């Protein structure tokens, strides 16, 4: 521990100073010797650090996306030079250089956060050992030793002996119950964060070794936290649980608003975006315009969800532009109007002979010739009747169609019913 303390001594004083400044604020509200004052000071330290690391987090997202895009090319290189490790490494480095990708960029937030983590660990360990450190003097040291979180001192650990815990005015049972609950919560939050990344924000169209590695880390990281967590003081567990919850919330925000192309999260996002754009007829935010711009720039390389989104806009009479805006498409609207007119011009269904005989066609409003049998008596014109040979051919045809024979009818046989 002395070696680690010496390595991170340059940041121990700033970390202790930040904790003391937050303690002054929360101490005025909850009391200077309470666990709320010191615990919230540690939580505020985490939030401050993570806000400062947001630019690195954005860079991590871009690096992770770039690595996922390069996975097919990397797999080809591995298969092509599987018997030549040196050439394989050279081709990998060449690929990274050409695409401007750095595999270590995805680890930047963790690497940048580790000095603060070890500095806080050393500060809390010094409080447990009754040693002043940084700007924490004897008065603040005594106040921090009195602070308890749910009955467990900030500087107590799961592996501490009963005598050491009693020296901090607590019981071994309280310390172990509180630390065990916090370790479980810390491991579960880490597992959920990694699982959320694997199930929602990974391109499911590409199966690569990178996905298998991420899936393995989903189970390995919680175990690592559980094993090392028993040696962390309660204050450090508060720090690490807070940073896990922050990471989980930050990742949920990114997945919801800027998902990985080809992932399930992108399908859900594009569905929401389509509903919003079709309702308002435009993109309403810079983030939406950036997504639409990226989809338009892909052209024929769009994935299934992106093609569905573009086709949906076209059917709605909208067109996505290269700058990310959405406008009404005149060609699409004209095509829709022409299609609607064509539907109206469609011929009515041809009716069967029985329908025509029973007069269904007339009820449907179709023009038919009025036969003599169907014409009402009061509608017949007055005047002398026409001769039989002067009758129109239509009436003869109508009688023939209705089943009547031309000329005199032969009487039915009495044997027939």
Question: Can you characterise this structure?
Answer:
This protein is elongated. A hairpin with a 5-residue loop joins β3 (318-320) and β4. The strands form two sheets. It has a two-stranded antiparallel ribbon with strand order 1-2. A two-stranded antiparallel ribbon has the order 3-4. Helix content is 66%, strand content 2%. It is mostly helical and 417 residues long. The protein has 18 helices and four strands. Mean pLDDT is 76; it is low at 368-403. α2 (9-30) packs across α3 (35-52).
Which key terms come to mind for this protein?
single chain, 417 residues, two-stranded antiparallel ribbon, two-stranded antiparallel sheet, 66% helix
How many helices does DSSP assign?
A: 18
Regions with little confidence, pLDDT below 50 for 5+ residues: 368-403
* Mean pLDDT over all positions: 76
> How would you name the oligomeric state of the polypeptide chains in this document?
single chain
Share of helix among residues? 55-70%
Estimate the global geometry from the Cα principal axes: elongated
- Tell me the number of strands: 4
Strand percentage, roughly? Answer: under 5%
Query: H/E element string?
Result: HHHHHHHEEHHHHHHHEEHHHH
The description of the largest β-sheet is: 2 strands, antiparallel
For the biggest β-sheet, the strand order reads 1-2
Query: Radius of gyration, Cα only, in angstroms?
Result: 40 Å
- Measured distance between first and last alpha carbons: 118 Å
Structural class: mainly alpha
